Amino acid sequence: MPEQPLPLAPPPRAPAPRGWSRRGLLRAALGAAALAPLAACSVPGARVHVPTGEAEIAAAVTGFWNGKKRSGRLDFVNYTQYIDVDPADQSRHPTLDAFARESGIEVTYNELIDDSASWFGKIQPEFASGQGIGYDLMVVGGDSYLTKYIELGYLAPLDHTRLPNFARHGGAAFKNSPFDHGNVYTVPWQSGMTGIGYDPAQVGRRITSWQDLLDPKLHGRVGMWNDAVQMGNVALLAVGVNPETSTPADWRKAAAWLRRQRDAGMVRSYSTSTYQSSLQRGDLAASLVYSGDVFQANQSGSRLEFVIPDEGGLLWTDNLCIPSTAAHPVDALTYMDYVYRPEVAARISETVQFVCPVPAARQVVARDAAAATGRRRSVLEALSTSDLVFPTEADQSRLRRLRVLDEEEEKQWNALFEPIYQA
What is the CB neighbour count within 10 angstroms for residue 7? Predict the structure, then answer.
């Protein structure tokens, strides 16, 4: 976190702000997942019948929530540095404090999640034995582990009659995802885009397509990731396939595109941990990036561009969900709805600087900018006008979701994509 009074981007060479922590964890987690993508998921677990259809889902919701009442307590677990903070006291989170004052619900907040695999491995034994995991609310990425939570019956179906703010203010792009149709179990916490980041001074022209990462003029100056999930999905976009509906035959075409790029010597490195610093130093001219990395880098003095290629980019989401063993689920649901108030979502975005799932928060950030002074005002103005934090409808229309894979499909997927960067 930068020095007071700025809760946002740092000056050049300052330590990384809080928003970078989750991105750093994402990079580390993706790299680890690429090596052992479902190691933790292989533990025994009895799959349950997942309700489908309106009648079944309604019955599941009624069955879970019938008789449950607010208790006045909430235990919330999250990734490190993934919520708003008080610049004068980074142990305090103003939106949590305001929620507690308004609702009368005492909140215990912990930042214990490092990555999807290790967190699942830690809490799965408690779930499997029917014990509570000690938390009423947790953040889970939209990946294969979320599918496991759902298949094993570890998440509570949400009562949307108690989520009016989500219905009213949640952006359309952040609803009805392929990993949770109808938001039966999740609502987005924060989101982000994967596309191409590049240095116009090095490239010398606009980049508009994934095919630009095959341009011989960029030979040896392209960054890609040691991550089978993201690499496979962007390669599907590169060959003109929507990842969400892709088939194994499509995956083979995508893998061939990546091998072509590798064998042509286009890629300087496959890394989820170093691409941002390499772009900022000029070692890379273009790279696969998260949108938030470019926003943060430019606030630190870089002049990078982020593009959603003509063939499309990826939209990923970290999600709030309630464990089926939660001791205080009504309190958790109350907080879920609270964070969909535009003024609350804005406060969180002003620190985290990811893609905000509440479009109306943009106007709140703009009002905060108008009331601010000095450096804080300029940073808030940049945030409120950034399509990297509040993507336009046109940009959203070109974003696709990751392919949801079952265990057998994941084995096929990894066999195709992992050797590309492990060779």
Answer: 24
